[in-house]
Structures are given as C-alpha cells and as structure tokens.
Amino acid sequence: GLGLAIARQFIEMHGGRIWVESEPGRGATFWIALPFGPDRR
Question: For 1-41, how does the pLDDT look when each residue is reduced to its tens digit (9 = 90+)?
Fold first, then answer.
C-alpha cells in the first residue's frame, strides 16, 4: 500500500530506482538502486 508508494517517491527524489521481479509460486523480490558518489543529485 502506502508505504511502497512513499518509498518509491523517496527513492526517485534521490535519483534512484525501485522495481520488482516476481515468479509465480516463488514470491517477489523488490530491488532498490541508489546513486553513490560525488556526482549524486
């Protein structure tokens, strides 16, 4: 619900991305990538 929407907004505001990979019968994995280093915005 709402927590995931807030997380997505926060991550995108920091120049990152969030995505999900799902396999039927196995569940879902949520991935988060955030920039790191002096060029981050």
Answer: 799 999 999 999 999 999 999 999 999 999 999 998 776 55
- Does 18 map to a domain? yes
Those residues whose C-beta lies under 8 Å from the C-beta of residue 31, and which sit 6 or more positions away, are 18, 19, 20, 21
Domain hosting 24: range is 2-33
3-state SS class at 34 = coil
**Interior CA angle at 4 toward 25 and 11, to 5°?**
120
39 within some domain: no
Count of the separate structural domains present in the chain: 1
Q: Which residue has the tokens 């994995």?
A: 29
pTM of the model: 0.69
